[in-house]
Amino acid sequence: MTYDVVIIGGGLAGLTCALSTLQKGKRCAVIAGESSMLSFSSGSLDLLNALPDGTPASEPLKAIDTLKQQSETHPYTKIGVKSFIEKAAQAEMMLNELGCKMQGSSLKNHYRTTPVGLAKPAWLSFDGMLATETPDKLPFNSVQIFYPMGFLDFYPRFIAEEWIKKGVQVETVPFFMSKITRIQRIARIINKNNNAEAAAVPACIEQFDKLRELVNRPVYMLATMPPSALGLNLEKILRRKIIELGGDIFTEDKAVKAEWEGNKIKTVYSQKMGNIPFRGEKIVLATGGFAGRGLKATRTGIVEPLFNLDIEQDDNRENRVNTQVLQKQPYMYFGIKTDNSFRAVKNGNVTDNLYVAGAGLEGFNPAEEGCGAGVSVLTGLYVGEMF
Predict the structure, then answer these.
(1) Are strands 296-297 and 302-303 parallel, antiparallel or unpaired?
(2) Which fold has domain 2-103+230-384?
(3) Is 308 left (phi over 0), alpha (psi -120 to 50) or beta?
(4) What's the pLDDT tens digit per position in 49-75?
(5) Does domain 130-222 have CATH number 3.30.465.60?
């Protein structure tokens, strides 16, 4: 099977890269695993919440120049200031054109509510999710949180405790919901229990837009613990568009080996396709970081398990982990070495046709810097447009 581009990985980076490639008229295949990290998404995407030195970055576009000075290997530095600004705007436009109604802007972060009620900065959030300009002010003085009984991935009590600290009156209201419960019934329950100026529901309620039309007061979505219905919905939308544009997605599959011809990958083989090879003029590795199993920790160090690419890491094992568990962890900055065009490095040499996008890249800490989704989306678009 011959393509212009073969993308290994069906997460946010791989899917956005595929879209970018297909929109340029290239033939593209995506080898996607059973599930991606999108199932863990809160329904919000982050771009840049803090600089490497810990300085808050409430206005990402203004902070990118300083980030470049602090980290030469950060993916945003390799993209460059101009492309960072362009790709952020492009991503916002792309998601909205795909029908993913989003709120937010790269000009300034807003604050989303986490599944335990904390306020965290975000770049984009699905329309309808509770989003505020500041972390300590909510758009209501009283609210009722409605939730299905027995739904174990939502903790209204934790959210209520955090909101009460902000001076909001909170009531939690459980209700019974079965597979055949209609959105009209949920709306009637909310309207009947009209004891607060706003209502909130977990982001597992389908037809939320319809619910907002039926409820006679403001109603907001709240993020749940994984698996995330919003993240899975985003994945479904991206995959549907790729297929619509003529791309091929090989789901529940896994790349297992490759044949090299000098410094260039000649063929890639997958688990399900067996001896039938994938041939691509360009190959993109977007298998993720540690959580996505694109990077693997061993006793001797961090490895990239598919191609055994060079990894930027500390050779001293004791320096890889901070014994203070809740503090910044050095290993989070480890990742695949690439040149400034995101071509992978193997045995000290830049490969000819293997590119890397997303969480497996070196030089950034998605947890501390709040840039995980942004790195995936922007590097996916950037790499895809080079072909």
Answers:
(1) antiparallel
(2) FAD/NAD(P)-binding domain (3.50.50)
(3) left
(4) 999 999 999 999 999 999 999 999 999
(5) no
